[in-house]
């Protein structure tokens, strides 16, 4: 049987998804952070702040920020003294992050192009693994979770910030209408690319519900898993420990 995976609302081969996701992020890299502000009315900054508070990065720790792209999470964690390796499969996103790091004076970060499903790092190397708004774009999520487990030390922690489906009555319908009808138009106006943002919205709808994704994290070997919904589950912080 052919190995098909979701690309938004389409079913495509694994190879085609990887290629098309790469094209999406190459297209939006330069406007990615501007679009995040436009789409979330700046709320993504508060979500990321909360996420990093949950991670609790500490001086001397080695932390892998996967799908770290433009550096938003890495910069926040580096301020706490942790040693951060920023990895992303897309070099265009990393290039934007490197430029931003130079502008902000973050010269101690390590930047490494990596596929989340096949990391080049050794076993039991990192104290924490973070991934924010990236895991839904991975072709095989189970493989990425297995790699996260492999590269963490015993006692290491996994934290994922990702969109989900809000359970607030009324708000869900409003958000669905906004995201499907307006976000592609905003993408066209701000980034000159409606189709990439149409995919990004569709990818949220295809991502597993919070309980299902938590089960995937447990199946990868993590213990003490937890889900913290934000805005009724519009966004959620998932966590687990390697023990």
From TrEMBL:
UniProt cross-references to NCBIfam families, sorted A to Z: MenG_MenH_UbiE (TIGR01934)
Pathway annotation from the record: Cofactor biosynthesis; ubiquinone biosynthesis; Quinol/quinone metabolism; menaquinone biosynthesis; menaquinol from 1,4-dihydroxy-2-naphthoate: step 2/2
Family membership noted in the UniProt record: Belongs to the class I-like SAM-binding methyltransferase superfamily. MenG/UbiE family.
Residues annotated as signal peptide: none
InterPro entries: SAM-dependent_MTases_sf, UbiE/COQ5_MeTrFase, UbiE/COQ5_MeTrFase_CS
UniProt KW keywords: Menaquinone biosynthesis, Methyltransferase, S-adenosyl-L-methionine, Transferase, Ubiquinone, Ubiquinone biosynthesis
Stored PROSITE patterns: SAM_MT_UBIE, UBIE_1
List of residues binding S-adenosyl-L-methionine: 70, 88, 115-116
Protein name, as recorded: Ubiquinone/menaquinone biosynthesis C-methyltransferase UbiE
Enzyme Commission (EC) number: 2.1.1.163, 2.1.1.201
Domain of life of the source: Bacteria
Protein's gene: ubiE
Known role: Methyltransferase required for the conversion of demethylmenaquinol (DMKH2) to menaquinol (MKH2) and the conversion of 2-polyprenyl-6-methoxy-1,4-benzoquinol (DDMQH2) to 2-polyprenyl-3-methyl-6-methoxy-1,4-benzoquinol (DMQH2).
Organism: Novosphingobium indicum
Catalytic activity: a 2-demethylmenaquinol + S-adenosyl-L-methionine = a menaquinol + S-adenosyl-L-homocysteine + H(+); a 2-methoxy-6-(all-trans-polyprenyl)benzene-1,4-diol + S-adenosyl-L-methionine = a 5-methoxy-2-methyl-3-(all-trans-polyprenyl)benzene-1,4-diol + S-adenosyl-L-homocysteine + H(+)
Entry-linked PANTHER family: 2-METHOXY-6-POLYPRENYL-1,4-BENZOQUINOL METHYLASE, MITOCHONDRIAL, METHYLTRANSFERASE
